[in-house]
Fold this sequence. Notes:
By secondary structure, the chain is mostly helical. It has helices spanning about 1-20, 35, 40-50, 65-70, 85-90, 100-130, 130-155, 165-170, 185-200, 215-230, 245-260, 290-295, 325-330, 365, 390-395, 430-440, 445-460, 485-500, 510-515, 520-530, 560-565, and strands at about 75, 280-285, 320-325, 330-335, 335-340, 360, 370, 375, 380, 400, 425, 535, 535-540.
Amino acid sequence: MKITKILIAAAVSILAVSCEGFIDVPPQGVIDDQLANSNPEAMVTSAYSMLGNCWYNYPFNLWPYGDLASDDCLKGGSGTTDTGYHDVEVWSTLTSTRGELDELWYRLYCAISRCNRAIISLNDYGVSELGEETAAIRMGEVKFLRGHFYFKLLTMFRQIPWITEDAVLNGTHESISNVEFTYQELFEKVIKDFEDAYNVLPETPADGGRTHKVAAAAYLAKCYLTLAWGDGYEATNGVGFINKAYMEKVVEYTEVVKSSRFGYMADFGDLFLPEYKNNVESIFAVQTSDYADDNTEFGRANWSNMLNGCWGMWSCGWDFHKPSQNLVNAFKTKDGLPMFNDYNNEIAYPVSGVASAQKYDPRLFHTVAMPSFPYKYEAQYTMTKDNSRNPSTYGYYSSLKDVPQRSKGETYNGSWQAFAMSDYVFRFADVMLMRAEALIELDRLSEARDIINDIRSRAAASVNKHIGYAAEFCEIAQYPATYFATKEQARECLQWERRLELAMENGRYFDLRRWGIASKTLNAFFQTEKDVTYEGQTYAQYYSDAYYTPGKNEFYPIPYNQLYYVPGLYTQNANY
Length: 576
C-alpha cells in the first residue's frame, strides 16, 4: 500500500513538471507530413509503389471482373464458396455487400490519395528540389498514375467521386458526391490527366519502369475507344451509338504507338515468361521481382494472381482462373480460320499423341494448360487430370499466361506462393487491335485487316520454339479480303481476334460490355457451359442459376460500406 502511494505521488509530480515544459519527442513510426511533403521525389515514388500494392481479394489487374465475369473462364478453387468471386461469374446473385468490391474501391482510392499528395508536394517543392524540367516530368508521371487508377474505378463502378489534390488541401473529400459529375464528364477528367501527362512526358524514360509519352497515348486511345461506343449501358451502347470523332482520336493516338520504339515480340510465348519482362511489346507494365533478384525476403511479387497456380504443380497452387470449354472451342480453326458460327456446337480438345482432324489456333497452347501436354512448355511437368482441384465443379483446364515455368520456382515458397510475373497494362498487340477496331468503324477495312493479319502471322510463327509438341494440332491462316468485304464481317473478325490474342489477360468482359453484346454472349454461354463434359466428367452445372441482366449488370454495384460511410452522400448504380 505504501509503495502504491509512492508511485502515485511520483506520477503526479511528473505530470506537474510536464505541464510546465513538454519534451518535444517526434512520434515513432509516423511519417511527418511536412517532412514528407518537402521530398517530392519520394512522394512520386510512393505513388508509383501503389501500382503493385494489391492482393488477390483486391487485384488491381481486375482479373475476377474482366475474366471470371466473362465467357473465357470459371472461378476455380475448392468450390463455389471459396472467396466471394462466385457471385461475379454468375451475376444473378451479385450484390453490393461483397467485401471484395469494397476492398477494391478503398485500395484504389488509397492509390489516388498518394497521387494527390505527390501533386501537392510537386506544386510546393518540385521546382526548388528537382529543377523545372524534372518537376514537370514527375508531375506528368503522377497525372498518368492518377488517371490509371481512376480508369480502373470508372471501369468497375461507373459513378464515382472525383477527388483531387484540392479536396486533400481543403479537407472536403467526405462531402464529394459520386453523382457530382456524369460518366462522360468523369472520363473527360481522366482524359485531361492523361493529356497533361502526354504533353510533358518523354518518349523514353530515363529509368526503367517509369511511365512515358507512348503509354499516355495508349491510355488516351483506350479512353476514347470506350466512350466511342456509348455510355456503357446496353440500351445506349453499341454499334448504333458509335461516335466517329472519338474513333478518329483512337486512330490519332494509336498512330503515336505504331510509330514508336515498340512492336511485336517474335514469339507469342515469350510474352509470358518473366525473363522477357519489359520486352519490345511491353508499352507499360506493373513491375515485379523475385527475392533472389532484389535481395528481399519476398520480392516484389504479383500478389494479385497468387491464387492462379495449377493444383499440384506448385506447392500452393490454388487452381483459380480456369479457362472455359467455350474458350478452348473458340480456338478451333477450319482451313486455318475461326469457326465463327459453329465453334461451340461440339466439345473438342486436343490430346497429346491422339490424332485429330480438328485443328486449333496455336495461341491455345500458350494460353490454356490441358491434360496430356507439357505445363508451360516443360515435358518434365506434363499436366494430368490430377492437376485439377475440383474437376466436378471447374473442369480440368488451367491458366498459363499468369504463371512462370515450373522449373523457375516460386517467388515465395510458403503457405502462399506468388510469381514474379509483371502485369501488362498495355502491350503493343492490344493497342494495335484497338486501332483496328477504330479503323473498321471508320470504314478503313483493309487497314484493319493488315493489322489483324500481322498478329495472326506472329501466332503462326509461335510454334517451333515452345510448342513443337503440339505442331500437329496447329493451323492458322491469314484472313482473305472477302472476310473484310463488309463492316459487319470485319467487326466479327476483330472481336474474335481480341478474344484469342488477349484471352485470360483480364479484359474480355469489358470488351463485351463496350461492344454492347454482354447479355447476349453471356446468357448464351451460361446455357451451353452448364452441360459441358470432359472425358465423362460433367462440370460447371452451377451456371444453371446464372443470368446477366442488361440495364443493371453492366457495372458493378457501389459497395455497401461506401454507401453508408457518409449516409446519403453516394447514389447506387441502376437497379442494384
